[in-house]
Amino acid sequence: MSVKSIAVFGGNGFLGRKICEVGVRLGYNVTAFSRSGKPPSNLPPINVPWINKVKWEAADLLDPSSYSSKLSQYDSVVHSVGMLFENQSYKKVANSNFNALRDAQNLANSLKGSNPMAKDSKLTFEAIQRDSAVLLADAFLEAKGPGLEPAFVYISASQKPPFVPERYLTTKREAEFELACKEGLRVIAMRCSFMTEEHSGPNPRSVLGGLVLLGHSVKQNTIGDSLSYVNNLIRPPVSTEQVARTLYEKLESGYSGIVRDEEIAKK
Question: Where do the NAD-dependent epimerase/dehydratase domain residues begin and end (predicted)?
Fold first, then answer.
């Protein structure tokens, strides 16, 4: 049997790099597309073996001409690009070495006082989370041709995190709908809850993940699943490893449709 190939757009991001790592572990030929075309930096040496087995390519997701000619060689494509806020400063804070007071102040400073008229039109929820996914899916379908039904994985979300604008979730749902309407494409929508990274050092994301897990445990031990509103509000966190493993299981099983966070959390 030939080796399977996969293209991960956003492959050097928080989840994307784990999808690449697990793909290498499972024997896939993995190509990671990102704006820089470079592997993630500042990772522990243990990551070097799998990083060296990934092909790193530069591409602009909103410009299909930068990647469309390369898509025919892949069995599957993953769209793992998203954002919680349109001001991208929060990403540097969320994954930095942990200093609670400093990071809280930096995050607050990065999000307050932004001028909507000064925003880059390419860095909106609509552009990044919806339009880029639709453009990528169209280019993939055209590259593969009729009758093949290639697999397209979209990293979605189960709910809107606190303090995050509503458009974060609505644009993901709009993307899910538009992708599902495309004939000849096997779409898998991964509705992830808050994600953490296994074996990571202390940082704002890992601390917040611990609080999310604690909140879910308290809910389960007090009211259980009796209140649907609370169930939708307080979701169990998942690790990037759980998301990546579930993604490949769904790819290899021929599944299409929505994958909910409850199923991901069981992996």
Answer: 6-87
